[in-house]
Structure formats: structure tokens, C-alpha cells
Amino acid sequence: MRVILTGGSGFLGQALTRRLLAQGAQVAWLSHRPAAVGQGAPAGVSVRGYADLQPDEAWDAVVNLAGAPIADRRWSDARKQLLLDSRLHPTQALLDWLLVARRKPRVLLSGSATGWYGNQGDAVLDEDSGFHDEFAHQLCARWERLAWRAQMDAGVPVVLLRTGVVLHPSGGMLARLSLPFRLGLGGRLGSGTQYMSWIALDDWVRAVGWLLQAHLGGSVGKAWSGPVNLTALQPVTNAEFTRAYAASLKRPAVLAVPAPVLRWGLGEMATLLLDGQRVVPRRLEAAGFSFRHATLEQALRQTE
């Protein structure tokens, strides 16, 4: 299996790369800074610039994960533009190559997020649900529309990975929360009733590999296109997550951060913390994908 990957140096990209290499796949990372990124790439991974892609190259699959982190800082106008550009520019570069490639990859798995659905309270949302129009939706929707052109214009099946909050102590949200919770300073955000759709890192990597195999001749059944929710079966509220994470660290979590304080400190970005989506992985579940970390408590016990 030959896989080309954007965003390979990120939290998700590194985890997926490790799994692919362990399975004997040939992996290449694409980057706008190949010299710098190449210094930290695992052995066996080639790192190239987008402009290096040639029409006569043959890759079995493309996984497109490039994009600046959405929750790292306030959403100024400049930050919003960066979030958009960091997703659209790599995707456009891939599309340009796919349009002229003489041997098309068999699938493009392209990143997205459960933010596509926007804030819809406690409504249960699957891949057929609609959306609430807000910045997170607009960001995901523009990214998805551009990626979808690979199927419409280049004939390459596209799977849109609507990923929830990915949990593992080595990175992502848990890495940011570890210190305050270990100091006993963790607490619910706002009312704590907002839902969080999460997935264990191991299950996210396994699900992506499962989707790849569906297109590359594996035994998992029909190849898909369109959106797939990469979330666990049981979304939790912020209050439930706070209690479970504190308990996993054997620390108290009695504090609360009032919603007005978050809005004052984070501006519009506070919606990521105070609003939520109750998203379920209907397509994965219906197709028989098996989650190893079905409960939040199991996910919080991950060490590998």
C-alpha cells in the first residue's frame, strides 16, 4: 500500500503514519516546508513539497489532514483566514495534481470535523443531519466542498472524515488539560451540559485504516464516499467528561469556569467550549466497525 499524507507531522498524522509503517505501507508526507518537516519525520517516510507531485506518480491513497489547530488562540479575522487557508491551499494543491494524474489514487480521505454540524444542543446528529450556520460549520463546509471536487472532477472517491475530539495523553486536548487537572484546577465549563463527541486515538487510527482497506481491496465491505463521523458511540457532556478525567487522574474537579469569563477571554472561540454537538458514528456502526474504547473511561486509560 502506497499512501501520501498531508499534515503528517501533526498529532493525528503521526499516529496514522506509525500504524501504516507498522503494516508495511510506503508513506510520503507532503509539506509546504519539506526541509524543516523532514528533520522530524520517522525513518522510512519521505517528505516532499506539493510542487514535486508529478502526473505519472502512482499512489494508492491520499489522506489529507493539513490544517492549523482551531483551538490554539482567539479567532481574530487574521486567525480565521489562516485556519481557512491552511486547509484550502493544501487541498487545492492535491486537487490540481489529481486532475492531471495519469493513474488516480483509489481514494482520498479528507479531513473535516464534527464542527460541521454547528451547535445543535442535545439533538443526536448523524451523517444525514443538517447544520447550524456558524464559523466552525463554514470552515468545515468550505474544506469539504473543495475536497469533494476530487470525486466530481477527477473521479477519485472522497471520504470526508468528520472527526470529534481525539483523546490520548500524548497530544490534543488531553495534553493541554493534563497540567491544570493534575494540579486540581480542572472543572466544568459553563453549565457543563454541552455535549462533546470524542474518539480514542487508537480507534481513530483504526477507523481510518478500515476506510482505506474498504477502497484498497480489504474485507471490510463496500467502499464508501461522503461524510463519515469519526466519533465514539457515546458522546458525553462536559460535566461528565470533567468528572471522568479528574477521576482517572485521582484528582478533584470541583471548580467551574463561568461562561461569561470564557467569552470575555476567548471571544468567539469560546463557542468551541460552551457549545457542542452530540454526534454519533452511524455509518461506522451500521457497517460493523468495532470500537476498542467504547466508553470514555476506557479511552482515558490509553497509554499506547
Automatic annotation (TrEMBL):
Pfam families, alphabetized: DUF1731, Epimerase
Residue span, DUF1731 domain: 257-302
InterPro entries to which the protein is assigned, alphabetical: DUF1731, Epimerase_deHydtase, NAD(P)-bd_dom_sf, SDR39U1
All copies of domain NAD-dependent epimerase/dehydratase, residue ranges: 3-220
Domain of life: Bacteria
Family that this chain belongs to: Belongs to the NAD(P)-dependent epimerase/dehydratase family. SDR39U1 subfamily.
Protein's name in the database: TIGR01777 family protein
Species this chain originates from: Lampropedia hyalina DSM 16112
Lineage, top ranks: Bacteria, Pseudomonadati, Pseudomonadota, Betaproteobacteria, Burkholderiales
